[in-house]
Amino acid sequence: PYYVSINQDLFLEASLHSSDPLLQLFLHTCVASPTRHNSMAGVYTIVKDGCVKDPTYAAFYSPHRHTLRFKFKAFQFIRSNPVVYLQCELVVCRAFDYSSRCYQGCVKRSKREASS
């Protein structure tokens, strides 16, 4: 566990350990939940489909393509224990592959129309 106070900036770094210098990381989705179970019920979305959802989120420069750095303000779920579990999904892409998911950035998915 990592202990922080409410509203304290929580700084995170994710790194890909590979000998290939032409790989890079992309933060696809990051959610916080009140339980450790991999359930989407009751989660708070920080980043979804590469789109920032939390106004306290900020990305930071990294001199390495295989390292991501970001922060958001710590919070607590109402009426639950003081523990928050963070789950993030990262995408690994080839650097300079402009058709890859890493270069698409925020992708807003359109809702499908229900057919009769």
UniProtKB/TrEMBL annotation:
<dbReference type="Pfam" id="PF00100">
    <property type="entry name" value="Zona_pellucida"/>
</dbReference>
<dbReference type="InterPro" id="IPR055355">
    <property type="entry name" value="ZP-C"/>
</dbReference>
<keyword id="KW-1015">Disulfide bond</keyword>
<feature type="domain" description="ZP">
    <location>
        <begin position="1"/>
        <end position="109"/>
    </location>
</feature>
<keyword id="KW-0732">Signal</keyword>
<protein>
    <submittedName>
        <fullName>DMBT1 protein</fullName>
    </submittedName>
</protein>
<dbReference type="InterPro" id="IPR042235">
    <property type="entry name" value="ZP-C_dom"/>
</dbReference>
<dbReference type="InterPro" id="IPR001507">
    <property type="entry name" value="ZP_dom"/>
</dbReference>
